[in-house]
Every structure is written in structure tokens, then in C-alpha cells.
């Protein structure tokens, strides 16, 4: 599984639609909760990248309402 697929899987399973939803889901652990789950789902791809957390961030910011880089899901 690739990082983008893992992030999308988490977004779908947790029914995340916005930045606020992600903040609530992550809780007081911040984005570390998300990064840990993505690393578990896509360990090989995670290890291939120098900064995998940046890839995770770029993807969820395009998919969740409330981020500057949000693109409407069509």
C-alpha cells in the first residue's frame, strides 16, 4: 500500500471530512496518531521516503475541507 492509499483509507474509515474532524480524531496526540497509523499501513513506502510525514500532510490537506490546498472530491 502507498502512503496516499493509507491516508485515504483512514479518512474513509474515520469518516473525516474537514480539518476540524481530523483535529478531533487525532486528539491531544496531534498528527502523530495519523502518522503512526499510516506507517503501519504502508511501512515499505514510509521507509522509502526521506520525509514521509510531508507526503501524508500534503495528501490530507488536499482531501479535507478547511485547508488552503483543499480540492473538492469529485
Provide an overview of this structure:
64% of the residues lie in helices and 0% in strands. By secondary structure, the chain is mainly alpha-helical. Helix 1 packs across helix 3 and helix 1 crosses helix 5. It is globular and about 30 Å long.
Percent strand: under 5%
Q: What is the element string, with H for helices and E for strands?
A: HHHHH
Helical element count?
5
- Work out the radius of gyration: 12 Å
Low-confidence stretches: none
State the helical fraction.
Answer: 55-70%
Average pLDDT rating: 94
Task: Name the descriptors.
64% helix; single chain; globular; 74 residues; mainly alpha
Please give the structural blueprint.
Elements: H1 3-13, H2 19-26, H3 32-41, H4 43-48, H5 52-63
Q: What's the short version?
A:
The protein is mainly alpha-helical and 74 residues long. It contains 5 helices and no strands.
